[in-house]
Amino acid sequence: MFKTSTSNVRKFAVAVAVAAISISFGACNSDSVTTDPYLPNSCQLTKFALSKDTTVCIGLDTVFFSIDQIRGEIFNADSLPVGAKINKLVPRISVETASVLEIIEPRPGKSDSIHNYIEHPGDSIDFSNGPVRLRIVSADGQAACSYNVRVLVHKSNPDTLVWSRLERAGLPSVFTVVTDQGTAHTADKFYCLTHYDGKYCMATATDPSGVWQYSTPVFSFTPVLYSLTATDKALYILDDKGNLMTSTDGNSWSATGQQWSSIYGAHLNKLLGVANRNGSWKVVTYPEVSENDIPDGFPVSGASQTTTYTFEMSDEPQTVITGGRRADGTLSGVTWGYDGNSWACITRKPLPEALENAVVIPYFTVDLNYNTWKFTERSVLIAMFGRTANGALNDTVYTSSDLGVHWQKADKLLQQAAVIPGRVDARAFNYKQTLHVSRSQANGWVNIPLKRPAAKFVSTPMVTAVKPVSEWECPYIYLFGGYNAEGTFYNTMYRGVIQRFTFIPII
Questions:
Q1: Rounded-to-integer distance, Cα 117 and Cα 84, Å
Q2: Which own/partner pairs from 335-341 qualify as long-range (CB within 8 Å, at least 24 positions apart)?
Q3: Which residues contact 162 (CB under 8 A, 6 or more apart)?
Q4: What are the E-state strand segments in 13-52?
Q5: Which distant-in-sequence residues (6+ apart) come within 8 Å of 208 by Cβ?
Q6: In Å, how far are 44, 69, 74, 467 from 464, measured between CA atoms?
Q7: N or C terminus: which one in the chain shows less Cβ crowding within 10 Å?
Q8: Spatial contact of 204 and 189, defined as CB atoms under 8 Å apart
């Protein structure tokens, strides 16, 4: 064992207990700094936090800072809220022992300001001018190290639903000009059928933002493109006479012998729709063929796509549709549920505005607790676009957190951006895409030995304990086509996401 003299050196140790709290997808941060017991005079930083200050943000003292011992970087992986002021923050720092601990604060156009943390641990520091540097010298003066500290602040609210056009010029198609489309999703593939000048293109992809494959089907009938629908295993479409057609690949189609008025969607591998039988409306299914009188108030056209949920306390999943036009011509603002056998109205508080041909899609919202810096992901139905009872296009987004039982106007963070014009007859799907980051970008820690501050210190190499995050699932909404109020088709494809879901999750 080696010996060191500290008779003329001031020792310093500040202990800080910081709760390592995660706000990403329910995961929790881990205390990822490992102290090497064989280096009693190491200059290594072990903790960094900020003191409580509710004028900056609630829960400031619980914000987790990652300490990258390899690159000498300290940062909060989840940024502070928009508008947080970081020019007067009081850091709380813990090292093993130190003779020098300086905070070097940059001041543009002036000399750097140097704070002696040992003598003045309560000094406020301005982090707004870029990285602040920590300089640490070990108790015996034999080792020194430094860290760059960044306090990150969101430039926009991360819980905003943001929409963007994909890089392609329009919908996936071999046609530059597209005048109509229908899009569907089986269990493993997306299908986008487009039309121009009497010709058709069927585009297929497993990832809607990836590479699409194209074919040119020749129909022996005139397809109603908007009616294109899929179960897990098959595609369906109506022709202009109401005949129900089916396909397994989108190119070869055959008649089912059924005649329907509208296709609503699928319940597992059962197709759901409505049919008019000599003036009497029926709810119908296929390939398990059934016909029953529609319930009072049930929509006969213009309802949303179906959404299917599975419940732990139910033997059967539930499929829901929202809105649409009733047999008497009025618009509906309620949600209907199908349990595998029959339809029932499940809404107690309808949409504030009844809608026709709206987009209703399952997605998520975020509840962030700034006291603990944890966020809770909640499943919701989002209703947007469509046409109102007076014929105007809807420009408001609505949500339901209980599958359509209660509807309300969505928080302003979910209201559609002006970048997307109002529309009807659009199709939307959610898709969880795997996002990747390189090893150098991944926050957290890398499992490699840490470098030594002094070569004469010989001990067992120290490694950190937590694997870095390199990939995670991010839920996107993909929006295809639609028409404006004058009936002009939008040859566009948008992708929407709550920004927070794109951030690298904290371990």
A1: 24
A2: 335/381, 335/400, 335/403, 335/404, 335/405, 335/407, 336/295, 336/298, 336/299, 336/303, 337/403, 337/404, 338/267, 338/272, 338/306, 339/314, 340/267, 340/268, 340/270, 340/316
A3: 417, 496, 497, 498, 499
A4: 45-50
A5: 190, 429, 431, 478, 493, 495
A6: 13, 9, 15, 8
A7: N
A8: yes
pLDDT tens sequence across 182-226: 999 999 999 999 999 999 999 999 999 999 999 999 999 999 999
pLDDT digit string, tens, across residues 19-61? 222 323 233 333 333 334 334 447 788 889 999 998 888 788 8
CB atoms within 10 A of CB 130: 12
Over range 444-471, report the average pLDDT. Answer: 36
Long-range contacts of 9-12 (CB under 8 A, 24+ apart): 9/99, 9/139, 9/140, 9/141, 10/99, 10/118, 10/139, 11/97, 11/98, 11/99, 11/139, 12/95, 12/97, 12/98, 12/99, 12/101, 12/118, 12/139
Q: How far apart are CA 196 and CA 174, in angstroms?
A: 10
For the chain, the distance separating the N- and C-terminal CA atoms, rounded to the nearest angstrom, is 36
Threshold 0.85, pTM exceeds:
no
The upper half-sphere exposure of residue 152, i.e. CA atoms within 13 Å in the direction of its Cβ, equals: 15
Triad 367, 369, 370: Cα angle to 5°: 130
Helix, strand or coil for residue 60? helix
pLDDT value at 499 more than 90: no
Q: Are 365 and 411 in contact, with CB atoms under 8 Å apart?
A: yes
Average pLDDT over every residue of 81-103: 90
